[in-house]
Amino acid sequence: MKKILIMSVGMGRGIESALYGSIKLHNPDHVVFITTKASEATLDRMIYGKKIRDITKNKCVILENEEDIEASYELMEKVVENLLQEGYSPNDIAVDFTTGTKVMSAALAAVAVIYDLSSLTYVSGQRDENGRVISGTERIMTLEPLKIALDIKERKEIPTYFNIYQFNTCLGVLQKFKTFERVFTSEKRKQINELENIIVGFQEWDRFNHKLARERLFEVKRFNLKKQIEFLDNLIAERISLSKRFPELKGKIPTTHLIVDLFSNAERRAEEGNYDDAVARLYRTIEMIGQFILLTKYNINPGDVDVEKLKEKLSTDQIETYDRKRDEEGKIRLGLKEIFELIVKLDPTNQTSQLYLDLKDDLKKYLGFRNNSILAHGFEPIDKEKYEKLRQIVIKMMEKMISNFDEMLANSKFIKIKQ
């Protein structure tokens, strides 16, 4: 595609030299001159035997009021939009804002940055007593607007989306960075790669892919992630430890860290306003608490209950009741309510049993919110108030069950990137 140069045109003495120098530097196939009614005459000035307007193919666009910043911006934007509609890409369009009024130059520079145009040029040099560049001393200063645009995206867009957990959107912005890696220094490329690691790391964590999350976040040096990495290390270590104790579960095992992590995930969904998703996670958190207690305290797998382990604590009738719960695979699988009821039967005096009995009525009521939601068995939407009521019950249960719950919860929180 041919190259286009957009130039603002002023009226001062010697301006033709700056216009000529920029045209020769860019060597465009076509120039769009932005003039005022008065400055259009500048294009008829002679330099090296030619009028400015005759140096190359061109089009002149006249700005009615050169002091109207809004009108100036709208005109510059319209010029660029027309070129894009004609099939030119932003990389085909360069801008020179050396001459023209301050308002014209400011508007043209702003459009160049917003549309990621290929280059932004200004002609500098030694100046006379009137502040004009002396002919023959011109020096072309070039800036790539893309660098400014990408810097804005890095400082504003990525933190904004990251802080509301829109990780895919962040990666979409980063993909644009990679498309234009040529404009960055090697140090800047390292920063971009590290930014990708932190985004992917927390995205995978949000998906409960803890091992990959830990690998990515460990590579990050730009942010202090010591607490988060420590939490992931402990989560993975606890899972490995319990997996050795219960090899038959093949790693599919509840742990205290996983319970806290699931609760944190629910908190993030609530922060987004997705209360149905948040309550579904709280429900699973409560269920996992009961599973953890049955497994670690009584050596009973709630996904495949061994009735032989119940005989010392339960009556024959109670055991027969459980025996009748076998599914088509011959397994006894317990739901949330059944898990806690079994814990109470095994030892009604222990802390978990007492807590469950104290919360039983509220738990039944608030779990009804989840059961009646569209993500479970009903059609009722869940609001913030319903989420908060169930959340408080979950917190009470975790505070009783996990001695260092507050510390673990703090370490499981995702960081926020400052803008």
Task: Explain the overall architecture.
- The chain has 419 residues and is an alpha/beta fold.
- The chain contains 15 helices and eight strands.
- The chain has helices at residues 15-26, 69-85, 102-114, 145-162, 167-179, 186-206, 210-218, 226-245, 256-271, 275-298, 316-323, 336-346, 351-371, 384-401, 405-411; strands at residues 4-8, 30-36, 46-47, 50-51, 58-63, 93-96, 119-124, 139-143.
- The strands form two sheets. A six-stranded mixed sheet has the order 5-2-1-6-7-8, with helices on both faces.
- Helix 3 crosses helix 4 (145-162) and helix 5 (167-179) packs antiparallel against helix 6.
- It is elongated, with a radius of gyration of 34 Å.
- The model has no long low-confidence stretch (mean pLDDT 88).
Question: Summary?
Answer:
With 419 residues, this protein is an alpha/beta fold. It has helices spanning 15-26, 69-85, 102-114, 145-162, 167-179, 186-206, 210-218, 226-245, 256-271, 275-298, 316-323, 336-346, 351-371, 384-401, 405-411, and strands at 4-8, 30-36, 46-47, 50-51, 58-63, 93-96, 119-124, 139-143. It folds into 2 domains: 4-143, Hypothetical protein VC1899 like domain (Restriction endonuclease-like) (Rossmann fold, 3-Layer(aba) Sandwich), CATH 3.40.50.10770; 224-411, no CATH class.
Taken as a percent bin, the fraction of beta residues is 5-15%
List the uncertain runs: none
The structural domain count equals 2
* Strand order in the sheet with the most strands: 5-2-1-6-7-8
Helix content: 40-55%
Q: What class, by secondary structure content? A: alpha/beta
Distance between the termini: 37 Å
Mean pLDDT figure: 88
Bulk shape:
elongated
- Quick one: how many beta strands? 8
The succession of helices and strands, N to C, reads EHEEEEHEHEEHHHHHHHHHHHH
| SS element count, helices | 15
